[in-house]
Write a structure and sequence with these properties.
With 401 residues, this protein is mainly alpha-helical. The chain has 2 domains: 2-34 and 170-400, no CATH class; 51-166, no CATH class. Helix content is 67%, strand content 5%. It has 16 helices and 5 strands. Strands 2-1-3-4-5 form a 5-stranded mixed β-sheet, with helices on both faces. Strand 1 (56-60), helix 4 (63-79) and strand 2 form a beta-alpha-beta unit. Helix 11 (268-294) runs antiparallel to helix 12 (300-322). The protein is elongated and about 95 Å long.
């Protein structure tokens, strides 16, 4: 076992150095920049098209106060043409204002960022806004303009009282679901994108007869394991660069920096560690399958033909794993967590939705066992069908006898 690991590390170091210390690796790191730039361009073109995406404030007031505030909103909107303005929605006052406020803040049918109460005389803003934020500043300006219009230019200025509240349970659950879906999608895209690189590398070494030279020196299992470890390390290096660049962009662009991202149930440090581990598990599982497929192909056309069914099957696996979001302890959630190919996606989403940590330890051990099974099977098939070595299976020997 020690000799197998030692040989695998030698292969991994060889492939890692040949890949990372090459000119094409820089292009590999810059590859995600192009779809991000396209997304930013299209996002900037369509940002002003959808009015429904602007933040909305529920105004609990009578018709007269709301009409004065709406008129001030129209004047401000015409004065600051092109700038994003907070939207107003009137709500009829209720006998129990506290209950009405809580219901408005947790409503998912018509979500609002805050609730404005007290009319023009005693304005109070409650919700997910900050006193120094743009929404509070716009509302304070509108209220002051509406009060001066109604009572005259000598009307006394009354400050807007802002109460910043934490996110409600309904909003937190919705945000955790969003984090779970985003984590699953990122894990799927990265796994498919990076695992296919194994195929081209294996085909190149097969065509140059390098794989046969290596097979004469070290076991096939060590070659496959070394290649998986090398490409996994290279992929993790690229992901680290991309994540650092993305975090820097969010910190510079978002109003609240990284705090604007919806936090997962286990917290960001643990969730990011889980993302690295589950990416490694997903990469090793799919990479072992791709190595087994690539071992039976001799040209790039054969690689595309053989890898297409695996890729389409992985899309179905991803769709199966996405059904577990929202109900990780249900029948579908548990079944997808047990199935080895969908287990990394389901468990990463579980980390975003539920705070328990012990199921992840069991899942990682389960996935490691299947990585060993897939890798041993791929090496055995490659040795028998490509290198024409090794004893035939027991059932075949019995059939011949």
């Amino acid at each position: 076992m020690n000799e197998l690991l030692r040989a695998a590390l030698v292969i991994a170091r060889r492939d890692f150095a040949a890949t990372v210390f090459s000119k094409s690796f820089l292009l590999f790191l810059l590859a995600p920049l192009f779809p991000v730039m396209i997304g930013l361009i299209f996002g900037g073109l369509t940002m002003t098209a959808g009015r429904g995406d602007l933040p909305t404030v529920a105004v609990v007031a009578g018709e007269q106060d709301f009409a004065a505030l709406a008129a001030a909103h129209e004047r401000a909107q015409s004065a600051f043409r092109g700038a994003p303005m907070v939207q107003l929605r009137r709500v009829e006052p209720a006998p129990d204002p506290d209950s009405l406020r809580r219901r408005l803040l947790v409503s998912e049918d018509r979500p609002v960022i805050a609730v404005l109460e007290g009319g023009l005389a005693h304005p109070r803003l409650t919700g997910g806004v900050r006193p120094d934020g743009s929404a509070a500043g716009q509302l304070a300006l509108m209220i002051d303009h509406a009060r001066r219009t109604a009572a005259g230019p000598d009307a006394q200025a009354i400050p807007l009282v802002v109460s910043h509240t934490g996110r409600s349970s309904a909003v937190v659950a919705s945000q955790r679901t969003l984090t779970a879906r985003a984590g699953q999608a990122a894990l799927f895209v990265l796994t498919i994108l990076l695992a296919t690189m194994l195929l081209s590398q294996l085909i190149e070494e097969k065509s140059n007869k390098i794989i046969e030279v290596l097979a004469a020196a070290v076991p096939i299992g060590a070659i496959f394991l070394g290649k998986l470890l090398a490409m996994l390390t290279m992929s993790l290096l690229g992901i680290a660069v991309w994540v650092a660049a993305g975090a820097a962009a969010v910190a510079l662009i978002a109003e609240q920096g990284l705090a604007s991202l919806p936090p997962p149930a286990v917290g960001w440090p643990v969730f990011l560690s889980m993302a690295v581990v589950y990416f490694a598990m997903s990469y090793l599982l799919l990479g072992a399958i791709f190595l087994g497929v690539g071992g039976h192909a001799s040209t790039a056309r054969e690689v595309q033909t053989l890898s297409m069914p695996v890729t389409m099957a992985q899309i179905l696996v991803f769709a199966f794993a996405s059904l577990a979001i929202g109900d990780p302890d249900g029948a579908i959630g548990l079944g997808a967590a047990i199935f080895p190919l969908s287990s990394p996606y389901v468990m990463l989403a579980r980390g975003a939705e539920l705070p328990q940590l012990w199921p992840h330890l069991a899942a990682i051990a389960w996935q490691l066992a299947w990585v060993a099974i897939f890798l041993a099977t791929a090496a055995r098939l490659f040795r028998r069908s490509v290198l024409k070595s090794g004893a035939p299976p027991r059932w075949r020997r019995r059939a011949r006898a």
